[in-house]
Every structure is written in structure tokens, then in C-alpha cells.
Fold each of these.
Amino acid sequence: MRDRLIFTAQLLFTLLVAAFLVVPVVLSISAGVTVNYFRGISSGVTLQWVFQVFDLYADTILLSFLIAFATLAVTLLVGVPAAYALHVRGGLLSRIVEEIITLPLAIPGLAIALALLISYGGFGGFRRSWLFILVGHVVFTMPFMVRSVMAVFSTIDIKTLDEGAASLGAPPWRRFLDIIVPNAMPGILAGALMVVTLSLGEFNLTWMLHTPLTKTLPVGLADSYASMRLEVASAYTLIFFIMIVPLLVAMQFFADRGQKA
Amino acid sequence: MNAIVGHGASVHIEACAKTFADGTLALAPATLDIARGETLVLLGPSGCGKTTMLRIIAGLEQPDAGGRVLFDGVDITAVPIEQRNVGMVFQSYALFPNMSVAENIGYGLKIRGVARAERAARVAELVALTNITGLEDRRIDQLSGGQRQRVALARAVAIRPGILLLDEPLTALDAALRDRLRGELNRLLRSLGITTIYVTHDQAEAMELGDRIVVMRKGAIVQIGTPREIYFKPQSRFVAEFVGAANIVEAPVADGRLMLPGGVLPLAEGDTHPAAVAMIRPETIAIVAAEGAALTGTIDSISFIGDRQRVIVGGASDKPLTIDAPNTVAVTIGDRVGLSVAPDAIRLLPEHD
Ligand SMILES: Nc1ncnc2c1ncn2[C@@H]1O[C@H](COP(=O)(O)OP(=O)(O)OP(=O)(O)O)[C@@H](O)[C@H]1O
Ligand SMILES: [Mg+2]
């Protein structure tokens, strides 16, 4: 009897918390398809705001994905070998490098952006291109990739596996591709998931670094909240959701499969 | 079966020492020759530098300046492991979890650019040789310890290595399996006829597998010899006690006899030190009638082991003597017995160490 009571209370609490989190999402999305938010859903359902967002902000959506996947590519190409090198070398120097890579986690995005602007703001072409934002995103997401790959390395004896492959005649690059990468896959996938998610949703740093021609989705969203009808901004959120949720589900799916393999 | 591997290379190690970055001297300068086709066992307690020596031969560790490693007379000290054509079995096996059993065994051949069909044939040959038929498509985490050990061996042998290096390949297994695989491994290594260097801290393994045994202690080689030489003619107290059971007796010598508290034991001709540390193996002491015996003592304890009985006799020597007697000898605790030892079964050792 007492157990039942405790269970019911826990269930209620969980549902309440979930509702607290879900309700704003539902409201926001529904606002995006209402004719007039202040009159409520009774004013009618429409897709006009969604189309308007597409007209105004289609390029920000494209740019966001471009930057997210470019960030992923860079963090993979640099982060995975870096994680391997840091793990194998060990020692004080590796610890220091690891800490430096991790630093952007603790530093506010605004500060990173400011530093980038002070250092490279003078290079006009670079400053105006989306590559400038890419650099910011890489700095910000790199620790997630490096850390999650290193976490896998610490659970398997990667050094001995590498030596095993070497004894069979494999040169270093071959060992990296045949042995290191496949065995680090769970960490790489988990890292990739974080990198893409963080890059797509990143606002602080991007807001500082963007130009009118290099807006990403979250920056565009802020823009529309500030200058458009609430319905437009909500429709924007809706689009964000529709694009990112399937992507995340797909990546999670692959990450899980990688984990099992 | 002669096509499985060639006869391999000869190995010459010259003045190879190893000091690690933290200052640990893991290996004092060691010089060693290993003949083509020979099985050499590196034997010694934990931390004595066996793995370090093996890794220097493999190319996973560089010797300190001045050390050289030669395969078939060619200096390969600076050649990385992937170009040395050595087969290596690691203590943890180092099997690739991302590959099936067959892919593991075939990996070295794939690296060498061997065509798929030829590779498959070679893998099948090794699967049969190492008795793992039916497991080819398994993942590594679906194998038992003994099966992993076989896959690791098959993988190392598949590349027709010049030298096969094994670092305690049986240590991770339980005792019964270890005994069985030891015999199997012995037959396999003999049939392959390949130059093999085998690291172990288990003297029974060393005896069974080695053509010669290198006994190591604290980073130094203390004795090199055939299993019989190491067992019957240890050159130090350390070797005598590390390899097999040994009674170490400290006593003065007079008239070519060992003067013990319980009597005397005649020594072989030429053993004329004034005082001695002597080794007597338990199985070389015979229990005889007390009357007329040159050495007598009292039975302290008897443990029946099955194929023999272990008898502890007090009062004969400075310390109680351990005797392995046939299981048919009738003895009782408290009996006064005579002991006899053939003179050439008593081995005098240097006092020190
Ligand atoms: N990378 C290293 N850095 C510092 N010291 C090391 C390193 N590897 C081994 N040592 C030290 O060198 C000595 C010899 O080690 P080694 O691994 O060769 O011993 P071993 O005879 O194989 O022992 P075991 O039977 O326990 O495997 C030990 O004292 C060990 O602590
Ligand atoms: Mg070792």
C-alpha cells in the first residue's frame, strides 16, 4: 500500500516536471501555425508564417547545416588523431594540452568570440565569410570530440592493440584506420552527436561573430523574435524542430548501434 | 607441415640494456644468441625484465645506446616492428575487437597484400592447425580464454614470421586449461620448427617448452642452459630455489663429506670447499633404514600427494629436509629414519646471494 503511494507520487511528480518542460514547446510550436496568437488557436490554423520564414531565412538554415557539418568534419579530422596522440603520449605535456583544449568549455562564448574578433577581425575577407563562424564553432566543440574519444581509449587497451597490429606489419596510418578508429567508434559517434547538436544550436559566440550575410539559424531566430511578429518567430522554432529532431534521432540511432558493435 | 612457416631467423642480442624515462633500469646490458629454429625461454620472477627483453627483440622498445639486435646477422636495431616480420602473442592477446576471428588471423596477410582467396586458404589452414574450426565468424568477445589464446597464436603464425615471440601466453588461463594448452603449444611449436622466444614466470612451462632457458633476476641474466642443466646444475642459490623445489643446506665440509647435525653425506670427487651451501632436490633423497645409515632424522610430517608423498624430516640438517618419496614407502610421523643421497645429486653453490 505504502509502495503504491510512493510510486504514484513519483509518477505524478515526473509527469509534472515533464509537462513543465513540454508545454512551452507545444505552445511555441502551435503559435507558429496560428493565424493570430493573441486571439488563440480559434483564430484559425495557417502555414503562412512558416512560408514567410522560408522566404526570409532559408539561407540561415542552409548555412547552419553547412557550418554544423563543416565543424563536424574538422573536429573529426583534427580531434580524433589528437585524442589518440594525447592518449598514447601521456605525460605532463599531454595533460596540459588536454586542459587547453578543454578550456573553451569554461570560458563564456562571448569571450571566445571577442578574442577571435580582436585577433582576426582585421582580415576582412575572412571576417566576412562563414569560415569565421566555423573557427568559433570548432574551438567551442573540439573538447567534446576529444574528450569523448579519449574516454573510449581509456576503457580499451588501445596501445596494445596498436602494437598487435604493428607486429603484423601494419604501418602507422594503417593501424590508425584499421584498428584505432573502428575501436574508438562509440566515442567518435557520441562526440559527433554533440558537435552537430552544439553547433546547430550555438548562439552566444555565433551572434558575436556573424555578419548580416552570415546568419545561422539561432541568430535568425533571435532576429525574428526581435523584429517580427511572435507567430513568425514561433514558426521558425517549428522549422528548427522539424529539421533537428529527425537528425538527432538518426544520429542517436547510429551512435547506439556503434556502441553495441 | 613444413610449409606452415619457414625455419625462421637466428637472433643475436648484443649489450642490450634498457633504462626507462623515469630512470628504472629494467635490463642490465645483456648479450644472448638464439639459434635458428630454437625455442628459448626467458624465465624469472615478476619485474625481472623478461617483457622488456622481449619488446627490445620485437622492436617495441629501443635498447639504450650501444645495444644492438641482429636477425640473421643483419643489424635491425633501428628497424620498426612492422618491418621485422616477427609474430607476437601478447599476454592480453591484443585481438582486435572490431574484427571476426578469421579477420584477425588474416589481418597480417591483408597488410601484406595477399589476395583474398589465398588469404582464406591460409586462414583455414591455421584454424585447423590451432583447433578452432567453427569459430571463424565469431567476434572476439564471444570466445573463451583458451580460444582467444589459440586465435592469437594463429594470427601471429599466419604471417610466416621469422621469429615468434610469446609473452606469458598462458598466464591468463586457469590452471587445468594451462596444463592442457602447454602440451598442445609444445607440440605445435616443435612441429613449426620456428625460432621462438617464450616469456614465462612458470618454471614448469619453461622446462616443458624450452630448448634452453634463460633465468633472469632483477634485470640481469643469471644462468643460461638446457632445462636439465638449469634443474640439476644451478649455478646459484636463486636458480636452485626458483626452478623446482630445493633443500638448501649450509654445513662445513671435511674429508669430502658434508658434516650435518644428523650425520654425514659423502660428496662427489673434487668438491673440496671447506664450507658449503649445498642444494639437494627432494626427489634425490632416499628414505632407508635408520640402522647403519650415515645420516638420520625424525619424520615431522607426511603429505600424501597421490603420485608421491612429501615427507619432512627434522634433525638431519640445519633445517628440516623436504623429501619426495615414492607413495609405496611406509612411514609414520615420529619414525627415526636413515637418509641417503647419491654424491652427484648434491650440488655445491657459491655462498653469496
Ligand atoms: N614503460 C616503463 N616505464 C618505467 N618502468 C618500466 C616500464 N616498463 C617496465 N618497467 C619496469 O621495468 C622492470 C622490468 O619490467 P618487465 O615488464 O620487463 O618485467 P617482467 O619480467 O616482464 O615482469 P612480469 O612477469 O611482471 O611481466 C620493472 O621494474 C618495471 O616496473
Ligand atoms: Mg612481463
Amino acid sequence: MSAPVEETEKPNIDIDRSVGDFRYDVDYAYDAGVGLTEATIDYICDVKQDPEWVREFRKDGYRKFLEKPMPTHWASHDLDNIVFENIRYYLSQGVTPSRTWDDVPEEMKQTFERLGIPEQERKFLAGVEAQFDSEAAYSNIKAAVGEQGVIFVGSTEGLHKHPEIFRKWFGKVIPSSDNKFSALNSAVFSGGSFIYVPPGVKVKHPLQAYFRINAQNFGQFERTLIIADEGSEVMYMEGCTAPKFETATLHSAVVELVALKGAKIQYVTVQNWSPNVFNLVTKRGLAHEDAEIKWIDCNIGSRLTMKYPGVIMKGRRARGEVISIALASDGQHQDTGAKMIHAADDTTSNVVSKSISIGTGIATYRGLVDIPPHRKGCKNNTECDALLINSHSRTDTYPAIVTRGNQNACQHEASVSKVNAEQIFYMQQRGLSEGEAMSLAVNGFVNDLVREFPMEYSVELKRLIDLEMEGSVG
Amino acid sequence: MSLSIQNLTASIGDQPILKGLNLEIPKGEVHAIMGKNGSGKSTLAKVMAGHPDYTVTGGDVLLDGESLFTLEEPDQRARAGLFLAFQYPMEIPGVTIANFIRAAVQARLPEGEELEATDYYANLYAKMDALKIARTFTSRSVNEGFSGGEKKRCEILQMAMLEPKYCVLDETDSGLDIDALKIVSEGVNAMRSPDRGFLVITHYQRLLDYIVPDKVHVMVDGRIVMTGDKDLALELEAKGYDWVTEDQLATA
Ligand SMILES: Nc1ncnc2c1ncn2[C@@H]1O[C@H](COP(=O)(O)OP(=O)(O)OP(=O)(O)O)[C@@H](O)[C@H]1O
Ligand SMILES: [Mg+2]
């Protein structure tokens, strides 16, 4: 086993990520250059032909980004290693995605084919958006779903073509000033999805977005807004990969969900970032009366992930749920959690988090459950389980349950367990290699949560865990 | 063809535990080892299986003529045909018995070959029925919350499914009730064959009434000091281990 390393000095990680680890040389038609100034923002606005209100929104976000401190006082000092002047903030081949794969530029098409996206689309998806660096290369929704009035487009198209819905909710669930990275995203956002599901429409199959980073020293800042109108239902899935880079790459998304009365949104993420990606994402949903928002989140890879999906339960009987799996391999830090804000009576939230730390990997859980004293009939259940593989691993749990008054119920359970050498020996004695034994132990640990993922994704998840564990024993 | 242990010495840290152990188990035979607590019986089993805590300091173990120690990883030795039924089987939370054994069977197939699920389950159920293990156990996590006896039975189930060449049973009888002892013994006897050898570690002569050994060895302080037939076990039961030691001293 490798010796413990300083947080700032990341070890050379060599994990077999054969699925995502490849890149193409692309001549970008639009390139905002390196570094971030007002001129960068103007460049992006011009390329995207943003309306004036968006330009102002971006500049306001930029000011807030400059004002806001890095959250190093409570999170990792590794954030200080992000050099904002060295990052490229916008790279694209054009702002209009193709509606057919045949029209997608060759190297992008090949990328997504290697990642299996067109195949998945044929098999089980209601629509796909495939983003390559700053813009979607492909975006399409199945005709039958479109005919029900479902809108599924990129954020740029959303704000141009559906301003009446878009503007009403954009930036309302997560204000630019929420944190430094939501402000940065507001300044330079590009790509991501805009979804609107009309009242009563239940989208049978999932809509999927795939976020691919191809360029080095690059920042991807997609912006997703999903609105499920009264009584509607939708499941959205996002996948993410990037090739291995020598230098740090930034992924900083903002995702806002709005579930109107009685609506249901499930948001599934399977993230498999390569080890030099800083993944700093703000995700929050607003659940109205009787609505339900469920985040199902799997974080594998990245150098540092900070992500705390939240639900604001604004209407009575609203429900919020976060189911998350985080796997921190050697040299990685998964700082994840959940925020549950009970802003109405009789609201219910559930958080189940499982983290796995391997080698020098660090997994941290940060939770916030806020139930003000005058609320009645609110319930929260939080379970955090951590699995440690070998002695360098570290796990921290910061479950902040802010609840006062006695008309509400909170339950919190946490456990830390270890895969010990005797278990591995036992499994090896049955003929399994060390890597297979570790995979089996990890899969066993997350088993009950994996069942929450759609079938196709749970298979993918298992495969990713296997790859990661094989890689970790070298 | 045999499992041949030749002048084996092994330590934990700098403390020697096995001190020149010789033992040969030809295929088709059942050998029993008896010996005081702490004499090194489990150590022998684990050293052969490749437990990382022990250092082999001398000697060799040949499995059908091939040195086990050229195979570094425990899983390589397992796939070469060595099976160890543990004195203390480990719990593996979240991994079902069915999936665990399946992975182990799969690991023995040539690369690219997939285990046929229906055949596998038919085989698994047949073996479970024979060992009187309820089929509901397939979906329980390996050893988690099992009673002592259930754990031991599950070890024998794995042995039956993996069809090893040489089986080492470390105190498989302890923790078994009288009925279970019979069932497990029948399971072992059913596996006796000219192509398989057994090393049965036990403290109780009674087991050897059911699994009748070809030879009984007595281990003292990391060595085999006496070998006899099944009657030796009866004699030990009557006279205790001090008799062996004194006898040894007398002949030394
Ligand atoms: N990890 C260890 N660290 C220190 N000493 C050990 C370790 N493992 C075994 N030993 C010592 O080695 C000796 C032999 O142990 P072993 O478990 O092989 O005995 P055994 O013959 O199987 O006994 P029992 O009949 O009680 O099962 C004992 O003195 C034991 O304390
Ligand atoms: Mg023992």
C-alpha cells in the first residue's frame, strides 16, 4: 500500500478507466481562450446570442463569484489548487445541437458511440442530450414524448424559445449568490438541459443527458432546469466522464428542479470522472404540495467532489429523498451529503448515504436537516454508512440536524465498517482474486442502494465498481 | 498424487509456530490431525492456504508434485485445488450465499466462459438439500447472523460446490449439534473419492466415528509427533495429550 500523502500533493493514480479514458483532438470553432474576465463573458454572450437579461445575469454572477470566498474554511484546502486564470471557459463547435447522430461532427459522434449513448437511446430512453465540452452536440426527444407537450432542449434553446417558463424559475431555486461555484456557473453557464413536463403527463422512459469533457484545462458549466407541472412525472439521468488529464479540470454545474403540486421528479446521476477533475456542483429541488423529489446519486472518481443535493419542501406533504453512493479511491476526496429543508408541515425526507474509502481516499458526509420549531408533523430519516478499505482510509460524518420543538421526528443512524484482511483472505481462499474479492465486498455494501437505480444503470454501476476495485489493487 | 508437507517451518512475526512438520496425504485418503489448543493446527491450514500473516521459513508443500509456494496468492492455490473449511468463517455483509458461491465457481471457468445460471442453481439446490440447508439461505448474506452450526454447514456446501482436490477441514465439527454432525459427515463422506484427499482437524474422537480416517496424527508444538490408525484417536481420548508428550520423551 502506498504511504499517506499530503492533501495538496496528489499521487499518480493509474486506474483502468478504459471506458472513458480516450480523447480526440478537436479544432474548436469557438474558444473563449484562457482565463476569466468580463470580456470572456461578453464573448460567450455573443456566441450564444444571449438576450440582454442573460448578459446581465451572467455579469451579476461574475461579480458574486469574485466577492465570494472559497469555502476552504469548512471544506478541503485542495480547492486552493484550482487556478481560475488557467481554465478555458468556453469551447464549442457551434451552439446548435444536431437532431440526428449522422449530423454530429465525426469525432464527437465517435466519442458518444464509444460511450454507448446512441445504443442506450434506442433501447430505453425517451430522449437524449449529449454535451461535448461547452455545448450539446446532439439533442433529441422521441416523437411520441414530444407530442405529449414535453419540452427537452438545451439551456440556450430553452431560454430563447420558452422564456415564459424558463425565466419564471431560472435562478430561483439556487440563487447565483448561493456559493462561489453557483456564482461562477451563473457567469459562464453553457449547455445542460431544460425540461418542462405539462400537467398530468407521466414520461414513461427516462430522459438522459451525457456530459463529456474532452479538452484539457477546461471548465464545464452546464445548467439544468427541470419543471414538472402539476401531477406530472419524469425521470432524468445524467452520466459524466472525462479522459485522464495531467492538469486540473473543472466541472461546476447548477441543477434546479421544480416539482409543482403532486409532481414527481427523480434525478439519477452516475458520475465517473477521471482523477484530475474538480467536481463542484450545486443541486437543489423545490417540492410543492404533495410533490416528490428524489436524488439518486453515484459519485465515482474525480479529484475532489463537493455535492450536497437538496430538497426544499415548500408545500404540505411534500417529500424529499437523497440516495447516494460515493467511492473515494486513492488520492480522491468525495465530500457529499444532503440538505433537507422542511418549509411546510407534514413534510417527509429520507437520506441514505453510503461511502467507500479506499487507500488514501477520503469520504465525507455533510448533512443538513432543517425543521423550524413551529412546524408540525415533519419527519426525517438519515442513514450514513461508511466502508473503509485499508488503514489509510478516512471517513467523516457531519450530520447537522437542526430541529427544535417536539412535533417532529428525526432519526439518525451512522455506521463505519471495514473490509478487513481476514474477509479478503476468506474470499481469496474460495478462488476469487483480491480485486474480485474487494469488488464483491463493495458491491455487497451498496447492494440495497443499487437496487434504487434503474436496471440499466445498476449494471453500469456494478461494472464501474469492479473496474475501480481492480484498479485499486493494481 | 498427494498433498505432501515436507519439513515445513513457519512463523508469525519472529515467533516460530510450525517447526519442521511432515505429513503426506495421498489422494483417496482421509487423515485426521488432533492436538492441544495452540499446537499450530489452524496455522498449518492457513499457511498452506497462503494467509498473508505467516512467513514460511523453510520446507515445502507439494500439491500433486507442484509446490504450493510458487503460487503466491491464496486464490491461485484455491484454484489449484486446495480448499479450507475455516474454523471461524468470515461474515461478508450484503453478499448473498448464491452470489458468492457463483462468483467462486465462475472464477474456476476458463476466461470468457459464462456460468449457466439454471445449471448452477440446480446444482446448488441439490447440494443444499443434501446438507439440509433451507433454500431460503441462498439470499442471505454469507455467514451474517448464522448460528455456529449454520456457518460450518455452509463451509461444507461451498466445498461441495467447488469440488477441490484436497480439503482441509478445521474443526468443522465444533459447534454442530448431533444431527448436524451426522449430516455434515455424510456430506463429507459423499465427497470421498479416489481423486480427493482430506485433512480433518478435530478435538473430538466422535467425528471420526462418522468420518472414518485412514490415519490419525498428533500434533505437538508445530510438529507431528505420532501417527496411527483410527484407534489412536480413542487412545488419545482415554489418556489425554500428556501421554503423547511423555511417550515422545520416553522414545526420544
Ligand atoms: N496472529 C497471531 N499473532 C500471534 N500469535 C498467533 C497468531 N496466530 C496464531 N498465533 C499463535 O500460534 C499458536 C498456534 O495457533 P493455532 O491457531 O494454529 O492453534 P490451533 O492448534 O489451531 O489451536 P486450537 O485447537 O485452539 O484451534 C498459538 O499459540 C497462537 O496464539
Ligand atoms: Mg485452530
